[in-house]
Write a structure and sequence with these properties.
single chain; 435 residues; alpha+beta; Immunoglobulin-like; Rossmann fold; six-stranded mixed sheet; five-stranded antiparallel sheet; 25 strands; elongated
């Protein structure tokens, strides 16, 4: 039992009235009677408030949550029998989530045989497995002098996935000119590496696309139409080390890399390619390449709870593991955050991978670096920061240039640029026939 504000206010008033017996001794007896009456009332109210009828509580929510998206949680309270109750409710939601709408005080008393519903909103900031604890109810005693704390409902676990709806929103497909992840793709009609069908010649077709035998047979120009080669494999090599803990806005580099990976995976499966992933840098997971929506679902299930660790990345060991697991020639996409000290080991791993696979290394560059060189220089400290940033970026470009000799493609982009850059590179490889 917890003293309510009403009881605390009465005790404070009684304490103030204690000055009266000090000033006039004949007021001592009335004050003692008043104090005794308050004590008796408090004890009687506590005894009545201790007896609380059974209350059932349930929680309704989406079950599967999306990172960074506001969703509603609905709570239902019901009481089959007993006296009317005045309640305050607080749902112990997972730690680290944004919340609005709690604690909640019932506008009217909960009556026997009735139910009360109310809701509040939550926004998960971290992916993975999270837990709701039980609901905490503060039940007022009949006279409102006490509150009894009671736990209702049951704890439950929920899963938070990357916001795949937002990722899908970035992937809008059209026919001849289409936008994917912010990428404006121009494809000439009939281009590709796999034969698709014969059709009538259209204005704009290349003369090389004309099938002369079919043209002679049908007595009109016939073109061969090709489509991009399918049944390829894309394997993501995802760095889970401490490098990926770097923050840009409210999200880590790892979250940005994960979203970009899912966007490219969705684009690739729409093209008929199989997608797989190997994680390294403190967390090792291997999901063999698989095609279709099943591959996307399995990819989400396999990576939704990943978080960057405190380990140091071992690029060479990761490359050796991928070579052991992926025998078929694949497009390997390495997602990481490079540093100067990584050049030697990364160069060796890219050389090893490029011997069998087509390899792309995508490194995330801190947005703060780009912002530092665009800020005006107004003091000596600003000048030192500007010069230091330029020197660091120059050394980074030189290191990237040396690494570019070991792999077909190398990207050095900010987290916001990564999704577009990855999809652009993939589509370019598909259209060129290199993949």
């Amino acid at each position: 039992m917890i003293p309510a504000r009403r009881l605390l206010g009465l005790i404070l008033l009684l304490a103030l009235l204690a000055i009266a017996p000090v000033l006039r001794a004949q007021l001592a007896l009335p004050w003692l009677l008043l104090a005794g009456a308050l004590l008796l009332l408090a004890l009687l109210d506590a005894w009545r408030g201790w007896r609380v009828p059974p209350i059932s509580a349930s929680r309704q929510h989406p079950g599967v949550w999306s990172q960074g998206r506001w969703r509603e949680v609905q709570l239902t309270l019901a009481m089959p029998a007993g006296r009317p109750l005045q309640l305050r409710i607080f749902d112990h939601y997972p730690q680290g989530w944004d919340m609005t709408g709690q604690p909640y005080r019932l506008q009217s008393k909960l009556l026997a045989g009735s139910a009360s519903q109310f809701s509040y909103r939550l926004r998960p900031l971290l992916r993975g497995n999270h837990f709701f604890e039980r609901l905490e109810a503060r039940i007022a005693s009949p006279w409102g002098l006490w509150e009894r704390r009671q736990w209702l409902g049951e704890p439950e676990s929920v899963r938070v996935f990357p916001d795949f709806a937002r990722i899908l929103h970035q992937s809008i497909h059209a026919t001849d000119t289409r936008t994917q992840g912010g990428v404006l793709r121009r494809r000439r009609r009939g281009e590709g590496t796999d034969f698709h069908q014969l059709r009538e010649y259209r204005q704009g077709d290349s003369l090389r696309a004309i099938d002369w035998k079919a043209t002679s047979r049908f007595h009109k120009p016939i073109s061969r139409e090709y489509q991009e080669e399918r049944d390829q494999q894309i394997i993501f090599l995802l760095d889970c080390s401490r490098r990926m803990q770097a923050q840009d806005d409210e999200r880590s580099h790892f979250d940005h890399a994960l979203d970009a990976m899912l966007l490219l995976a969705w684009t690739a499966q729409k093209q008929g390619d199989a997608i797989g992933v190997y994680t390294f840098g403190g967390t090792e997971r291997w999901l063999p390449p698989q095609k279709g929506r099943i591959g996307i679902d399995r990819l989400l299930e396999g990576v939704y709870d990943l978080q960057p660790t405190l380990a140091t990345p071992d690029y060479l060991a990761a490359a050796e593991r991928v070579l052991e697991k992926a025998r078929k020639r694949s497009f390997v996409v390495l997602l990481t955050n490079l540093r100067d000290e990584d050049e030697d080991t990364l160069a060796a791993s890219l050389t090893l991978l490029s011997g069998r696979h087509l390899t792309l290394c995508a490194s995330l560059r801190e947005t703060a670096l780009d912002q530092a060189i665009t800020q005006p220089v107004g003091s000596f400290e600003d000048a030192l920061r500007h010069a230091g940033t330029l020197d660091y970026l120059r050394a980074r470009r030189e290191a990237m240039g040396r690494l570019a000799l070991r792999t077909r493609d190398l990207l050095d982009v900010t987290p916001q640029q990564l999704p577009t850059a990855l999809v652009n590179n993939y589509l370019k490889l598909k259209e060129s026939g290199a993949l």
